Amino acid sequence: MTLNNRQSLLIGFGIGLLIAVLVGGAVTIMSRASHQHAAAAATPESDKGSATPEKSQPAMDSGTEPGSTVELTEDEQKAAGVQISEVRHQRLTTEISAFGRVEEPESRLSTISARVAGRVDKLYLQYTGQHVQRGQAIAEIYSPELLSASEEYKLALDSRNQLKAAAEPEAIQAADDLVLASRRRLELWGMTPQQIQQIAAGHSNPDVTVYSSASGTVVERKVTQGQYVNAGDLLYSVADLSTVWVKADVYESDLPQIRAGQPVEITSDALSGKTIHGNVEFIEPQASVETRTVPVHVHVANPGMRLRPGMFVRAVFNERQENALVIPRSAVLDTGTRKLVYVAKQNEVFEVREVQTGTPSNDLFPVISGVKSGERIVTDGNFLIDSQTRLTGGMTGLFGGSKEFGDHQTPGGGTPEQPSPKAAKITYRMDPDLLKGAAPAEFYVQLVDATGKAITDAQVKVTLVMPAMPSMNMPEMRATADLSWNGKEYGGTINVPTAGSWTTTIEVTRGGQLLASQHVRLTAR
Questions:
Q1: Rounded CA gap, 470 and 494, in Å?
Q2: For residue 56, is it within any domain?
Q3: Looking at per-residue confidence, does 393 or 466 come out higher?
Q4: String of b and e for 191-218 (b: at least 16 CB within 10 Å)?
Q5: pTM of the model
Q6: CB 3.0 to 4.6 Å from 324: which of 92, 231, 240, 381, for a disulfide?
Q7: CA–CA separation, 101 vs 176, rounded Å?
Q8: Number of structural domains found in the chain
Q9: Among residues 212, 239, 266, which one ends one of the domains?
Q10: Do the domain assignments include residue 465?
């Protein structure tokens, strides 16, 4: 290749590279401009004046802050289903339920021990759970020591009989003391008066019979036949189960409601629907680290052995307050960290109030602080008020302040003239009566004027709106339908997007003029 050819090739390559750079830069500039234009178009007018964009911050939950208020007209209260009741004093019975287990009463446990060392020749109680009566023979023990003591007692008797003929009182007294000491020794080893009398008659028996010192049920057997035992060794444990203990595990939060002497109802599957009544006897001073519960002892009578140790039972602690300040449970909104109520003030104003409550009873909460007797609170509709307030910052999204409910626009874009409220009366029905989510529904509307004459030339529009739920990443949902005159009424089909609560507006216009509108709350199953 010649020098001229090489120069031409290098020049051509440089020109091509320059063109590629220029084209790529132009494309990048156009792309950036396109993105900026799209971003500017998506930015609200109120944000275009900001030089530096900022991250949008979530709205404060001002609607549920204690002390905040909301104003509702009478119509808005009816639309929300608001019902109000008065805070009052009344008798309150609180029930605290806990699970427990039946145990032997520690104060009624007895042990039967060997009083003499020896070999167990015979056992009259063969198994645990057997019932025994006080004074019943339970075992026989062969004891060489007992045999020796019996011989000593017989010898002491014979010596005293021989000294009776002597004239020395001191010798006779010494013989009597020896007899008494020998007899006392036999009695301490468990010999009965009858057995001691047999020894005196010359019938010595090396076996000592052990008798039960208590009545009850054998809960433990520590000896077998043929076993050698020492004096003091445990033979049986006996429990009197005519009264049993129920140890109920009460949670720490319920413990302030428990007191000694409190009546308790005990139920169990083993009782066949019967209820046993008892009283709190003792509250243990230590809580369980694993379950955060405190054992509460309840002593109950147990006729017929209906409750047996080891059974699981349900204990209900009853606490009666004769003059407690109460509010309905439906009035309380529990956020997890606090409990709120809506207090009805004057001029249709509702104030959010934080309350402190005790353990609920049926449909009532005892009030510790937050409201006073005589104040009026919302008992129904408060959840709807609270949820809409937090979503929209007020009640406008539900009752007319949002774009779909306020400033009704005419087809031409103007604001229609507001007619008299009696310009038209709306009556509606649905098929089916209960809406179903993700299914069509038929809406029918009848219109009459102030004289009761049917209106047949109006435009009727039905709108379903479910507000957005930012915390659940759910956008606003909406469905609309235009109803047409069918010779009898206005009718049409609307598709319900999903189950839930829908704010529904029926809007009637004629010639661009708003004749009537109605806002209702419908629930789709």
A1: 26
A2: no
A3: 466
A4: beeebbeebbeeebeebbbbbbebebbb
A5: 0.47
A6: 92
A7: 58
A8: 4
A9: 239
A10: yes
